[in-house]
Amino acid sequence: MRILLSLIETLSVFVVLFYFYTRSRFFRPQKSEWLGRRGKLSLFVFCSALTMVGNYLGIWLEGGVVANTRAVGSMIAGIAGGPFLGVAVGVTASIHRLSFGGFTAVSGSMGTIFDGLLGGLVHLRRRNRPESLFDWRVAFAVTAFGEICHMGFVLLVSRPFSASVEAVKIIGPPMILTNSIGAALFMLVLRERERVVDQVAASSSAKALKVAQRTLRLLGNGLGNVALELAAIVRAETGVGAVAITDSETILAFDGLGADHHVPGNAIASSLTRQSIGGREVVFADGVHDHYHCSIVPDCPLDSVLIVPLVVDNAVVGTVQLFEPETRRFRNLNKSLGEGIAALLSSQLLMARYQEQKNLLTVSELKLLHAQVNPHFLFNALNTINAIIRSDPERARELLVHLSHFFRKNLKRSGELSTLAEELEHVGAYLEIEKARFQDRLTVETEVDPSLLGIRMPTFTLQPLIENALKHGLSTKLSHGTARIRARREDQQAVIEIEDDAGAYVERRGSGLGMRIVDKRLKAVLGESCGVDVTCVPDELTRVTVRMPAEGVLQ
Known about the structure:
This protein is α+β, with helices and mostly antiparallel strands and 555 residues long. It has 15 helices and 14 strands. The strands form four sheets. It has a five-stranded antiparallel β-sheet, with helices on both faces.
């Protein structure tokens, strides 16, 4: 019992040392590179030190027999670092044990090396399942088995045999029990450390995602336009002393301590900020080894800072800066959180820039389409009005009103959203002029569900489709032609059909600019499930179908 209690006391020292080791900068199992050279070296040094301490604090008996807890060190090294590391720690501990002498020195050394090898085999078997690698029950069972084998080495190697049997009777049970408990406790400490790291990471991720959610709607307006609100959001979520947002030249926003002299609009004066922007790197002054020195006011309360560049298309467009005062340490949570927030903001700015360029491209295509349609239509309309102005001046006046209405709507609504009712009104003016041009050869039929008149859609959606039906379909007929416009509900969708009875649609590579732009804009605004489909039965009908949500654009 005395031996057991003494070994438990030694084990308590081990657990305390291991606890502090897992909190040190040398122990980073959550990082993928931890078991590189430096990580393995730190684990080797620590576990070797444990085995040596175990030798020194062991219970020495007659004949140089020692009851000890050094097996914990070699076993942990093997399980955590693999067989090579486990054996290396075992060899180191064995050399140290041999220096003390005693008739069980050789067998004890063999047992310690075997423990490291056994732990390494467990590592190899479970390394692809990290959640099971640090299982305290496995550690307990494997260490118990290793210590039983250790006692077997004593019986096989140490002589005289009678002394070996007596030594095993005395030191066997307490060593098997305490070393097994020690390995299990170490695994529990590792699990607790892992749980804390996971909680910090989860908290950091949750806060970063919350910041991203709150800022997503903002960044589409540009960093400079939303910097003040962005700084307030980041400070509220991180709880730091102050937050600054800059572009590559000036301070855009500052929220928190020091706001009286860190004024938005001023040029960047901090050398740390220039270092971050110039080197496109994260700069961290922790307030312990490196300090933030304000270049504006000597007694500025800020002492530590994290500066993270905002990178878009491989260029630094600004920075996010988190500050803490001298009276408060910069928490690791806020450091990792600040880096995560900056990464998310950079991604959002990139998305906003992409969307802006996409919108500009669509607008450019739409203007190109207007440029193609309007002169052609204007020429035909004026010719038609000129032809009937002498025979029917009143009709000519009506057509001029429709023409002016059509072009006024074009100019007013370009690039905006409109309702189905407004789109029908627009194409109605167009069709009145076309009916006059076709004279009695054109009939237009309209059948629209009144409940759909208020749905919103991109402007200039229907007119290019109507024009295609007339220009490429009905104008080719020598006989009377009919155009039909229908709008109805179908499940959760609004279905709009533009149909003609010419059946002359031919899909040509590079043609159909108007239809392609309409399809692209519908998908961009309403989603990929929306768009334009064409059905053609030669010489009978061509039907262009537009599908969109029954509620249209919600904004």
